[in-house]
């Protein structure tokens, strides 16, 4: 039998939309800008699995006047706690310096405590009697509201304050601030403001859009689920082609995997034909919930960020282009919100 050879490069699909910058993203950003002067620290969340493509330059451009803490969320979905993972995290820290970067998993108290320690230290330096105000920002679905809830729970033992969900756009508006650290010595505590996710203005290449879709920053109705599943298969094969052996042996054909999954789970349409769409969503969901391997999607090397920034600059991905592309997307009746 011939050895299995995974695809090394994913095709550049021209059918993939390159924008998802929606009306409520622009409105949210503008509101954040109007509030930023009252904020002591901005916590910018990025997805651990996409430390490059989930960076949104709009935050630096609009909120950059305030000190920033960068939090890479969902570490549990991308890290196996190996020396390779730690090495990668160090490279990311270097990219972000002089800002501090932390890596969190909402189920790990120790990772959440590090964010609380940082916030506490920041508050201790503040001379304000009115408390310290933090603002959590980030791309859709990176886990901002979950982080807020985890901070509040670990620090104060209190229940969920912000609504969370597995699709982007659950938080639509900036709400009221939530206390996460009790005040002392006559001083008010530390409060956090949750904000709606804001998508990057324009995505320079189809593969970046697929990464963001696979991690859930784009509604699952925008890109065909079988395409997202195929992109996941590409990564599974590069990492370990046995990760989906509950469905099929190693293959580069997503329909072979989806047909096996459909038959195993009874996801069949009239005439016993496999329901590829629902099987694709199920396949992707399995990975998103950490049941099919933990790995990251971006390639992290010392110079990867510089190269990305050069690409973005040469491309000139402006807000004007973003608006034009978003309008086009709406015209094509893709949008169901989110
Ligand atoms: N495994 C894992 N899942 C997480 C973590 N943080 C958040 N999630 C999940 O990610 C999904 C999105 O979380 P939210 O907190 O709603 O994300 P958000 O950034 O507030 O989303 P928007 O409403 O789009 O702004 C939810 O299903 C969370 O349970 C994490 O550390 N680990």
Automatic annotation (TrEMBL):
Q: Which GO terms are recorded in the biological process aspect for this UniProt protein?
A: mitochondrial translation
Against Gene3D superfamilies, the record matches this protein to: 1.10.1580.10, P-loop containing nucleotide triphosphate hydrolases (3.40.50.300)
- tRNA-binding is among the record's keywords: no
The alphabetical list of record keywords is:
GTP-binding, Mitochondrion, Nucleotide-binding
Gene Ontology annotations for the cellular component aspect, listed alphabetically: mitochondrial inner membrane
Main location as per UniProt: mitochondrion
Which membrane topology describes this protein?
Peripheral membrane protein
The record, for Pfam families, names: MMR_HSR1
Whether Transmembrane helix counts among this entry's keywords is: no
**Compartments, record wording:** Mitochondrion inner membrane
What's this chain's function? Mitochondrial GTPase involved in assembly of the large ribosomal subunit. Plays a role in expression of the mitochondrial translational machinery.
Give the PANTHER family listed for this entry: MITOCHONDRIAL RIBOSOME-ASSOCIATED GTPASE 1
Q: What is this protein called?
A: Mitochondrial GTPase 1
Q: Which organism is it from?
A: Knufia peltigerae
């Amino acid at each position: 039998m011939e050895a299995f050879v995974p695809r090394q490069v994913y095709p550049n699909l021209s059918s993939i939309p390159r924008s998802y910058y929606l009306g409520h993203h622009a409105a949210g950003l503008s509101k954040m800008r109007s509030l930023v002067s009252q904020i002591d620290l901005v916590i910018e969340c990025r997805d651990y699995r996409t430390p490059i493509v989930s960076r949104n330059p709009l935050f630096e451009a609009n909120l950059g006047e305030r000190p920033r803490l960068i939090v890479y969320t969902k570490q549990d979905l991308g890290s196996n706690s190996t020396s390779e993972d730690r090495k990668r995290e160090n490279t990311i820290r270097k990219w972000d310096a002089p800002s501090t970067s932390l890596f969190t998993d909402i189920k790990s108290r120790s990772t959440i405590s590090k964010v609380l320690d940082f916030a506490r230290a920041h508050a201790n330096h503040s001379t304000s009697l009115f408390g310290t105000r933090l603002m959590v920002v980030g791309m859709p679905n990176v886990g901002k509201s979950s982080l807020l809830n985890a901070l509040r729970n670990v620090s104060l033992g209190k229940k969920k304050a912000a609504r969370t969900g597995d699709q982007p756009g659950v938080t639509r508006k900036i709400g009221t601030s939530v206390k996460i650290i009790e005040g002392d010595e006559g001083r008010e505590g530390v409060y956090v403001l949750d904000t709606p996710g804001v998508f990057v203005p324009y995505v320079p290449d189809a593969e970046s859009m697929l990464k963001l879709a696979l991690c859930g920053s784009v509604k699952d109705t925008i890109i065909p689920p079988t395409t997202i599943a195929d992109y996941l298969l590409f990564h599974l094969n590069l990492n370990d082609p046995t990760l989906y052996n509950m469905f099929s042996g190693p293959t580069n054909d997503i329909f072979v995997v989806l047909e096996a999954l459909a038959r195993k789970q009874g996801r069949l349409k009239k005439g016993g034909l496999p329901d590829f769409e629902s099987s694709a969503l199920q396949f992707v969901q399995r990975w998103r919930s950490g049941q099919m391997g933990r790995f990251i999607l971006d390639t992290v090397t010392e110079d990867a960020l510089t190269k990305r920034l050069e690409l973005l600059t040469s491309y000139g991905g402006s807000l004007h282009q973003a608006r034009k592309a978003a309008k086009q997307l709406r015209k094509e009746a893709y949008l169901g919100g989110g």
